[in-house]
Amino acid sequence: MHPEQANLEKPIRCVMLVDDDSTDNFLHTRLLNRSGIVDEILVFEDAEAALDYLRAPVKQVDLICLDINMPRMTGLEFVNEFEGFWDPSQKKPLIVILTTSVEPSAIELTKKVPRLVAAEPKPLRLQLIETISKKYFRSDEIV
């Protein structure tokens, strides 16, 4: 984190990582903590547990970083189920799809679901978080 940002409100209040790979979660958490952009990070290694949390959230989640290739429930299945119960008038959380290789189905889904703002290869990059922060989360007006 940049020292000058230590006492400022961060543009992205809460990021949810949904990935069955604990190493990716560790690396992504570390990147987000060091970015100075994110206030809190929730980590779920199971997509169904993440959906359960979102059905009755304790905290508002601003951004979900979602792995596509997970056992039991894929990232695409997660998005379909989430869109089935989430109020479409709620702009947040936004979703970023992360995967080892960006599949055409993920790119197509980003065109159909407005809250899907990116489909990117792993690992999560600081430049992507900075771009999303500037485009969707203004520090003076967090929606």
TrEMBL record:
UniProt keyword Cytoplasm present: no
Record domain Response regulatory: where: 14-137
Gene3D superfamilies in UniProt: 3.40.50.2300
InterPro entries (UniProt xref): CheY-like_superfamily (IPR011006), Sig_transdc_resp-reg_receiver (IPR001789), TCS_response_regulator (IPR052893)
PROSITE patterns: RESPONSE_REGULATORY
Superkingdom of origin: Bacteria
Keyword Cytoplasm belongs to the record: no
GO annotation (BP), single: phosphorelay signal transduction system
Keywords: Phosphoprotein
Entries under Pfam families matching the protein: Response_reg
Modified residues (4-aspartylphosphate): 67
PANTHER family listed in its UniProt record: RESPONSE REGULATOR RCP1, RESPONSE REGULATOR RCP1-RELATED
Name by which UniProt lists this protein: Response regulator rcp1
Organism: Rubripirellula amarantea
